[in-house]
Design a protein that fits this description.
The structure holds two protein chains of two kinds.
Chain A (H helix, E strand, L loop, with lengths): L8 H33 L6 H26 L7 H19 L1 H24 L4 H20 L4 E2 L5 H8 L1 E2 L2 E2 H19 L5 H13 L5 H27 L1 E2 L8 H10 L11 H20 L7 H16 L10
Antiparallel strand pairs in A: 1-4, 2-3
Chain B lengths: L5 E10 L2 E11 L4 E6 L5 H8 L7 E6 L2 E2 L5 H6 L2 E4 L11 H5 L8 E2 L2 E2 L1 H14 L15 H13 L10 E5 L7 H17 L1 E5 L3 H7 L2 E6 L2 E6 L6 H9 L21 E10 L3 E9 L3 E5 L6 H8 L7 E6 L2 E2 L5 H7 L1 E4 L3 H5 L6 H5 L8 E2 L2 E2 L1 H14 L16 H13 L6 E5 L7 H16 L3 E5 L3 H7 L2 E6 L2 E7 L8 H8 L1
Parallel strand pairs in B: 3-10, 3-11, 6-9, 9-10, 15-22, 15-23, 18-21, 21-22
Antiparallel strand pairs in B: 1-2, 1-4, 4-5, 7-8, 11-12, 13-14, 13-16, 16-17, 19-20, 23-24
Helix pairs in contact in B: 4-5, 8-17, 14-15
The chains are: A mainly alpha, B alpha/beta.
Chain lengths: ~325, ~500
């Protein structure tokens, strides 16, 4: 009987778009409001130097965020991205001085492989991604500490191979910012124009229907984790470029801002809704928030408190509870 | 007490778009087993849900032991002495049998929030003894086999009598669907025993069982009670006629549009397919333009077979050939790539991807149609989507509308468009394609099936009703307990009768 119980279409079409419009438009509105608020407090915020700092410090967070977004779109989560980024900087610092460009490529392959491994365990052993990546977080953090001897390794020789990413500026901002924007746009185009581009969203919204339509759901989920690893490796390259070093905890504090950026940008934590451009907007919101806190004289030690609260608040405000039965 | 224990008097229940119960009168007398039969959607479940307090009637009276009662929740129903044995097993596996039996009725067995185990086990034992069961109250529920769990469910249902001073009404909702052989006999013996201490409502798809255990049988159809029969004075064929009701209306099913398929080449061949516990020795062939209907009651193996042919469930032995070549069917994507489509019975979960737009749903199965070398050509996408919205008369505000906002019939059309728009489609498996649709949408689906045949597709159909199966198919294959028991030709003008099919089904 339940099958035939449907709400007349007219009633729902009136409600559905309004919700969607709010979720789509809200991040940009919040961004503009924040920029206004901060520039009132600190007029120099809109100056070129300050905007440059904002963009350049946001770039690695945006890269990590775009990576984890792939997984969130499928309805999963990747808690290991920040730790993989840290590990990436350690591998770079260890390999690049002797191996040069090959070292960079090997690092990217290794971190991507670590991401794929998360995906394999999630998809084949049927372990929830939350658990797999929580475990992976501890595991790779330990590996990074072991390899580095728990200390920062500075990159002397061959730093110039990656140094241009943050050292060379065009139009006032570093190449890393263009790289991030370019990749974001590329991913957005991929989602829109690749024949299988909507697979991530289909899996996040309705995995059974996607499976029964011939989408190779397992493969897509594994690739999403691989993409997450790949973007973590890119973030590692950018960080190592600006820091001249690799460190086993260099990026660990970026997990919360990255996930916050994805969610504040309007990607649903339940999967299926969102995209890279929204994630970039979300990163900017988080970036401005950070600058704003500085302007207000908030101790940077308290930043994580804000990111944590922002994640919970953003999900509380945007979660479409009509799609899920019981919230656990 | 001589009057009925429970009486439905002119009860109606309406859901948006459908009158689920229409002025229903039913009575359950003391120490009586009442059989209740009807097709899917006839109103049985709604009736049971009202009796168990899940739904409340819109009009009419529910009279329990002479008093008009409002059963607002399942708890109220239990307090009124009505116990349900659910179709899906509803026991908690990780706790003891006694805890399950008295779940929600712990009463005297809880003091200060703590179980008094001795009391709890004693009370549970009393219930188990009533049905003469050897299961111990302290057994862990998940260690029991299916049939034993069914007994625990019975004992749990019986526990409602503790809440009042009267004999309970026990509702058995398709209790036999998970049982066979000796377990079935045990259940029947149990029902005989229940007759002495309770009144029983017995709902089943298997008409022979209903005839065997019931004292009286109600037949429901389209939300109404259409007949009340004495099992001793009626046979299965008559019950079926009453259940299905109307004469076969050839026009309704577009029978004049059915084409002959003699001499058409085989598209899909199934040879010796089997899976333990589901189906075995299945041989089938479907020719271009042919509809092969799979008939059988629920659990007869036809649903499992159709899912196996789509790669959604495995098979142990046998092979599937498409155009003579053996198929690898490890997953649905294998089937889709080979040109097999599947319209699932669970439309809202497996048919359409809720949250995705109409457009994205239509191109989900075969993006190759709208792309070149993996890159979408937007003009081609627009054209294909517009063409299929038009051909299947899909009513939607725009191509970007969330498919969740469409009516059931239009969602089903989107599912059909997803498959029909793919040029590589050779075989279409339809699992209850008209379930839950209104008459207009049903007729549309019939038309599309005829058109798909005319284009040379091979169609495997599991229909909602026997009528539908006979009218739409060229050949009908009847399943019972996982095996093919009969085959009928249903070519245009040479249709078998419902009775012939039913005899092979039950």
């Amino acid at each position: 009987m339940a099958e035939t119980v449907t709400v007349p279409p007219t009633e729902r079409t009136r409600k559905a778009p309004s919700r969607q419009m709010i979720v789509t438009a809200l991040p940009s509105v919040v961004l503009v409001a924040l920029v206004l608020a901060v520039s009132v407090q600190q007029p120099s915020f809109l100056g070129p130097l300050s905007l440059r700092t904002l963009a350049e410090s946001a770039a690695p967070i945006a890269l990590i965020a775009i990576g984890v977004m792939f997984v969130i779109l499928t309805g999963g989560i990747d808690l290991s991205v920040a730790v993989l980024t840290s590990l990436g900087t350690v591998l770079l610092a260890l390999w690049m001085p002797s191996l040069g460009l090959l070292g960079v490529l090997l690092m990217i392959m290794a971190i991507t492989a670590a991401g794929l491994l998360n995906g394999f365990v999630t998809a084949f052993a049927q372990v929830p991604s939350f658990v797999v990546t929580l475990g992976a977080m501890g595991l790779w953090s330990g590996v990074a500490l072991g390899l580095s001897g728990a200390s920062t390794i500075s990159i002397g020789a061959n730093h110039s191979l990656i140094g241009w990413l943050t050292g060379f500026r065009v139009g006032g901002v570093a190449i890393s910012v263009y790289l991030t924007l370019g990749l974001g746009i590329l991913v957005a185009l991929g989602v829109r124009f690749l024949a299988r581009g909507k697979s991530l969203h289909a899996i996040g919204l309705a995995e059974n229907a996607a499976l029964m339509s011939g989408v190779r759901t397992r493969r897509v989920r594994i690739l999403a984790f691989g993409a997450s690893g790949f973007f973590a490796a890119l973030a590692a390259t950018v960080l190592a470029s600006s820091q001249y070093s690799g460190s086993p905890t260099l990026a660990d504090a970026l997990l919360l801002p990255a996930i916050a950026a994805v969610i504040v940008g309007g990607t649903a934590i339940t999967g299926g809704v969102g995209g890279p451009l929204r994630t970039i907007i979300g990163t900017l919101v988080i970036g401005v928030l950070r600058v704003g806190m500085n302007a207000l004289g908030v101790d940077p030690a308290y930043e994580q408190i804000v990111y944590g609260s922002v994640i919970i608040a953003a999900v509380a405000l945007t979660l479409d509870r009509s799609r899920i039965g019981i919230v656990k | 007490m001589n009057g009925p224990v429970v009486e439905f008097r002119g009860v109606s229940k309406r859901f948006p778009g459908v009158l689920a119960l229409d002025n229903v009168d039913v009575e359950i007398r003391p120490h009586e087993v009442v059989g209740l039969i009807g097709e899917n959607g006839a109103g049985k479940s709604t009736l049971l849900k009202i009796l168990s307090g899940v739904y409340q009637p819109d009009s009419g009276d529910l009279i329990v032991r002479g008093e008009s009662r409002h059963l607002a929740t399942p708890r109220h129903a239990a307090a009124a002495g009505i116990g349900m044995v659910h179709q899906e097993q509803s026991l908690i596996g990780t706790v003891s049998v006694a805890e399950n039996i008295l779940l929600g009725a712990e009463g005297s067995s809880v003091r200060g929030g703590v179980y008094n185990w001795k009391d709890l086990n004693q009370r549970a034992q009393r219930m188990l003894s009533k049905i003469d069961s050897q299961i111990r109250p302290t057994d862990r529920t998940e260690d029991l086999v299916l049939a034993q769990r069914q007994m625990v469910e019975l004992a749990k249902a019986l526990a409602v009598e503790e809440r009042g001073d009267h004999e309970p009404v026990i509702v058995l909702d398709e209790p036999t669907s998970v049982l066979d052989g000796d377990d079935l006999e045990t259940l029947f013996a149990e029902i005989e025993r229940l007759r002495d201490i309770a009144s029983v409502v017995f709902v089943s798809h298997r008409l022979d069982e209903v005839l065997r255990v019931s004292d009286r049988v109600y037949v429901m159809k389209d939300g109404r009670v259409v007949a009340e029969r004495d099992p001793k004075a009626v046979d299965i064929a008559e019950l079926y006629r009453l259940m299905v009701g109307r004469e076969t209306a050839g026009e309704f099913y577009r029978e004049d549009e059915q084409l002959e398929v003699d001499g058409a080449p085989d598209v899909i061949k199934v040879e010796g397919l089997g899976r333990k516990g589901a189906f075995k020795d299945v041989d089938l062939r479907v020719r271009a333009g042919e509809v092969v209907g799979l008939a059988g009651v629920e659990g007869s193996g036809r649903e499992a077979l159709s899912r196996a042919l789509f790669g959604a469930e495995p098979f142990d032995v046998g092979q599937v050939l498409l155009d003579g070549a053996r198929l690898k069917l490890g997953s649905p994507s294998d089937a889709v790539e080979a040109g097999i489509g599947y319209v699932p019975a669970e439309r809202r979960v497996e048919g359409v991807a809720m949250g995705l737009s109409v457009e994205d749903n239509i191109v989900l199965a075969d993006p190759g149609t709208i792309s070149r070398r993996g890159i979408v050509i937007p003009s081609r996408r627009r054209q294909v989507v517009a063409e299929w919205i038009d051909r299947l008369r899909i009513k939607t505000v725009s191509t970007q509308t969330d498919v969740a906002n469409l009516s059931g019939g239009n969602q089903q059309k989107v599912t059909l468009a997803k498959w029909l728009s793919s040029p590589r489609l050779r075989v279409l498996i339809l699992d209850h394609p008209t379930r839950g649709l209104d008459v207009g949408a049903k007729e549309d689906v019939y038309t599309f099936i005829r058109k798909a045949c005319a284009q040379g597709l091979a169609i495997i159909l599991i229909a909602d009703t026997i009528d539908e199966t006979i009218a739409l198919s060229h050949n009908v294959v009847v399943f019972r307990d996982g095996e093919i028991t009969a085959r009928f030709s249903a070519a245009p003008g040479r249709k078998p009768t419902q009775v012939q099919l039913v005899e092979a089904m039950v």
